[in-house]
Specification:
Elements lengths: L10 E8 L3 E8 L5 E7 L7 H7 L32 E4 L11 E8 L2 E8 L4 E9 L4 E10 L5 E6 L2 E5 L5 E6 L7 E6 L4 E6 L7 E8 L10 E6 L5 E7 L5 E7 L6 E3 L4 E3 L3 E6 L2 H17 L13 E3 L1 H4 L5 H14 L3 E4 L29 H9 L3 E6 L3 E2 L4 H5 L19 E2 L5 H17 L4 E4 L17 H18 L4 E4 L9 H4 L4 E3 L6 H11 L8 E6 L12 H8 L3 E5 L7 H21 L3 E4 L6 E7 L5 E8 L21 E5 L13 H6 L4 E4 H7 L10 E9 L1
Parallel strand pairs: 21-22, 21-30, 22-23, 23-26, 26-27, 27-28, 28-29, 29-30
Antiparallel strand pairs: 1-2, 2-3, 4-9, 5-6, 6-7, 7-8, 8-19, 8-20, 9-18, 10-17, 11-12, 11-14, 13-16, 14-15, 15-20, 16-17, 24-25, 31-32, 32-33, 33-36, 34-35, 34-36
Helix pairs in contact: 7-8, 10-11, 11-12
Length: 720
């Protein structure tokens, strides 16, 4: 009989990783993998190991184990008195090997990194877990599982990251949603039991692969907040569970279909990377950490660094399938006059694709529209100093296409059963070498011949019964093949940028972002909806890689009519795009759009590199912004969604500015003053500006002229 901290559970070493403001503590013991002892705000450097060991030696409950073991380790398995959600599920053909008791064989430490090697000789399993924690306060976990046995190993679950949350952090925000309603965070309180969120579509409209957690008092800017994100573009699983002592275990990992991972002796499974952060500055603190890490460690820019993000015009909502070469050239002329820097031709340019029922997969120019191919249009665009972009959906095909008629065996489906289509599309198996080679050769040649600078890569349906030619589940292989194909194109064309689109925000995760330079958050371009979608999405991804477009009014999706100023104010904080036909704009709107594009270009050095700021939620108004890293500049959006709940709107309070510094705050052109009888101070905002301290703006607040529902103002603050 062994009490906690004695015998096999005796502590041998305190392991510590520190970020700028956070600490992770692990306890290595005589047996088993290291215990997660603490994850939270940074602890003093003089921490006494023996004191930590004593704190982590609880009483043993009645009817509990005679041999105490910790409740949470870096990888929890079945067995060893562990009845909680296991991070590993696997077995061998004869039904053995379903329990695992990993013993730590080595611990390797370096500044900001820890590598754990574990081995279970009985089950014939080996794990390697690498945990890093850097200046951005983001934990990155990468782990592998190797079959050291003599028979195959069937793996049903192998998580990517395991995290310890305190007992009071049971208020979760889950990113549910659907097409056109992505990032719809919903609160879930976990008092007992567990919470499991699974997405099984190989797209993530329904459940984004991330989660937020906090206490009942956590807000955007105060209280402890926690966030986790899985870097994976396929199906996934997020689970939270109350442990026996009330604390919470949070795990993230991919969702594996039956038979997807069968490791032969000696083979290794590499799990997708997992990322997590915590902050004492609320959910906004987690957002800043994630954005900083994505910028430093996830996104790979052509040439090694980000250039100014070019304002683009996308042809879809302005033309749909009604394409005409001469008119497109005129649209490019008008776009250049507006200040657009990248012209993107969307769906409908290829094969017989005059609608969405045919031609998908036939990647050659429609000669009826482009008799000399796309090079003349590309040259016309480049002559204006703009980049040329083109839409592809390489993983899909219409059954009514030359590609499918020539290669029906390329389709992912269960042989012998009816072909299941969606949007009159099938999915092709890009994990096959012949398929991947075909797509690479076709696209790569066009990138060269047509001088393509940018690809909008779409993925417009879920995977249903995605079986390969042998009848095996191919969901995981499809994602890995996609990453390989993206990387192959980047290697062949180092200056090429790729946008990850999947009917909107179905591939807006860090797995996709590690191989692309832009993500499309939603097909919903209606400004009121985009206000909410972008506000939530920017808790995980930086604004400069999220496409945010100014579209026509009334909007094609919801029929809402909104002002150009409202649409532009919401869009300029991201990677700005225009999603309309510039030839149909009234002269006044064209002038105003040109002015908004010029304002965006002036502000984007801060918008695309600064610290994200989110004001605490209000019932009728959203306030968010970006401050420069030295807090000398702040740019804010104040968006009025509905009428205020009181007779007059509350004062505006801007987070993130240096409290002791003075700032000049203005409302830059082309915005004009509104309201009923604006005060002298409010009128100054639209002229020379008001001078206020950071403390006054964050704590006391100030009044803006009254804003009607679905109107907004962009504020600019500069230290003096």
């Amino acid at each position: 009989m062994e009490r906690a901290g004695s015998g096999a559970s005796s502590p041998t070493r305190l392991l510590r990783l520190d970020g700028t403001a956070t600490t992770l503590l692990l306890i290595a013991r005589r047996t088993g993998l290291p215990e997660i002892a603490y994850w939270g705000t940074r602890l003093p450097q003089t921490l006494d190991a023996e004191a930590v060991f004593a704190l982590r030696a609880p009483d043993t409950p009645n009817n509990g184990p005679d041999n105490w073991r910790p409740l949470i380790t870096v990888l929890d398995t079945i067995g060893q008195w562990n009845f909680d959600l296991p991070g590993l599920l696997a077995d061998r053909p004869d039904g053995t090997g379903w329990t695992a008791d990993f013993q730590t064989k080595s611990l390797e430490t370096s500044p900001g990194a820890l590598t754990v090697h574990g081995l279970d000789e009985i089950s014939g399993l080996e794990v390697e877990i690498i945990i890093t924690l850097g200046l951005e306060d983001v934990l990155c976990t990468r782990q592998t599982l190797t079959n050291r046995g003599t028979t195959p190993l069937n793996v049903q679950r192998f998580i990517s990251g395991n995290y310890l949350l305190p007992e009071n952090a049971g208020e979760f925000r889950v990113a549910h949603g659907s097409w056109a309603r992505e990032f719809d965070f919903q609160p879930v309180s976990l008092t007992q039991g567990g919470l499991v969120i699974e997405s099984r579509r190989n797209r993530s409209h329904d459940h984004y692969p991330a989660i937020l957690a906090g206490t009942s008092s956590t807000s955007q800017n105060s209280g402890m907040a926690y966030a986790a994100h899985l870097g994976w573009s396929g199906s996934h699983r997020i689970a939270a569970e109350r442990m026996e002592d009330g604390r919470l275990r949070l795990s993230v990992g991919e969702y594996l279909y039956p038979g997807e991972v069968i490791l032969a002796p000696g083979e290794t499974l590499t799990a997708p990377p997992a990322y997590a952060t915590c902050s004492s500055e609320g959910y906004a603190g987690c957002a800043r950490a994630f954005q900083a890490y994505a910028r430093s460690s996830i996104i790979r820019w052509p040439g090694g660094r980000m250039k100014p993000r070019p304002v683009l015009l996308n042809s879809w909502e302005g033309n749909y399938f009604d394409l005409d070469e001469r008119r497109l050239m005129r649209e490019a002329d008008a776009a250049a006059e507006l200040g657009v820097e990248r012209f993107v031709l969307d769906d409908g340019w290829f094969g017989s694709r005059r609608d969405d029922t045919k031609g998908l997969g036939d990647w050659f120019a429609a000669l009826a529209i482009f008799p000399n191919g796309l090079r003349p249009l590309s040259d016309h665009v480049h002559a204006h100093g703009m980049q040329f972009g083109l839409w592809y959906e390489p993983e899909m095909a219409n059954p009514n296409s030359d590609l499918y008629r020539q290669h029906p065996d390329w389709a992912l489906h269960v042989r012998g059963r009816p072909m299941l289509t969606s949007r009159q599309q099938i999915v092709i198996d890009i994990s096959r070498k012949d398929v991947s080679d075909y797509l690479f050769a076709a696209i790569s040649k066009q990138v060269t011949d047509w001088r393509i600078d940018y690809i909008k890569w779409d993925f417009n349906r879920d995977l249903i019964e995605a079986a390969d030619a042998q009848g095996r589940a191919a969901y995981r292989k499809q994602v890995l093949a996609l990453y390989a194909l993206w990387d192959r194109l980047h290697e062949a064309h180092p200056e090429l940028e790729i946008e990850s689109c999947a009917s909107g925000g179905g591939r807006a995760d860090w797995g996709a972002l590690a191989h692309t330079q832009r993500i499309w958050l939603s097909d919903n371009t209606s400004a009121p909806s985009r206000l909410r979608i972008q506000n939530a999405g920017w808790h995980f991804v930086p604004p400069e890689v999220t496409g945010c477009h100014i579209s026509h009014s009334p909007n094609w999706m919801d029929g809402l009519s909104t002002t150009l100023d409202y649409r532009a104010a919401i869009a300029i904080f991201g990677h700005l795009g225009v999603e309309l036909d510039p030839l149909t704009l009234p002269a006044d709107e064209s002038r105003r759009l040109k002015a908004w594009i010029a304002l965006h270009k002036r502000l984007r050095p801060v918008l695309h590199s600064g610290n994200a700021q989110f004001a605490d939620d209000e019932p009728a108004r959203i306030i968010r912004g970006v401050t420069s890293r030295d807090a000398s500049t702040g740019i804010y959006l104040v968006a009025q969604e509905n009428w205020p709940p009181s007779r007059l709107p509350a004062p505006v309070r801007l987070p993130g500015l240096a409290r002791e510094r003075l700032y000049r705050i203005t409302v830059p052109a082309p915005q004009t003053i509104g309201g009923h009888r604006p005060s002298d101070a409010q009128q100054k905002l639209f002229g020379d500006g008001l001078v206020l301290s950071g403390a006054m703006m964050s704590d006391i607040g100030f009044y803006l002229p009254a804003l009607q529902p679905q109107s907004a103002l962009v504020l600019e603050c500069h230290a003096i």
